[in-house]
């Protein structure tokens, strides 16, 4: 019989304890993430491929609808939902950590079971912020570029990079996007692995995640930049880099969570 994962109970009225970490912990978590990927590459490639192909399908749909001006912002904003998609990766790392056998049925069943737990609410949080990202893009297009028509992606990029209005749109979009990315990173970097690992409510998980960022601002800023840069690089070859980058970052995030949040007391 396959050993089932144990969800750690939360002590009533207590908050998870956040530790201080440094750059050495970031490096160690990343190295551990790479190690987990090579220990279970097929699982990583599966979840990374699911994410990459999903991005390509969404971009193809946008192009089909002749909304070419949304392709670039969508490609940049699509990784906002990455932390939730990486739940399967967290479970793989948890299996490796606990010494449980890795099976497709075990990992996928655990992911499926999250629909009845607090983690499912975090899906709406990430999707809501993604919706806000797409909405602000359309709003900024209307404010800075008016009702110009962009029949091709090249036409949109030319307008953005070669006109004053386009450059102002680009600057405002990246500022607003940076704020949204910071918010989403702060509320998900610890909360999603925590919700997978323990029986806590999503509000407690979000507070713990924000507290982890506020307690370790420099280390978390470095980790956020690592995630942002590697994800951006992974998007360049038609999203295909996400086959590897997503699982590596997902495994690393699990190990970072273990370093930031103290184990639950029995």
Protein architecture, described:
The protein is mainly α and 266 residues long. It has a two-stranded parallel ribbon. It starts with 7 loop residues before the first strand and ends in a 6-residue tail after the last helix. The mean pLDDT is 84.
Can you give me a brief rundown of this structure?
The protein has 13 helices and 2 strands.
Helix content: over 70%
Number of strands: 2
| Largest sheet data | 2 strands, parallel
Give me the oligomer status.
Answer: single chain
Number of helices: 13
Average pLDDT rating = 84
* Helix-strand topology string: EHHHHHHHHHHEHHH
Share of β-strand residues: under 5%
- Terminus-to-terminus distance: 25 Å
Gyration radius, in Å: 19 Å
Low-confidence runs: none
- In order across it, which strands form the biggest sheet? 1-2
Structural class determined from secondary elements:
mainly alpha
Shape: globular
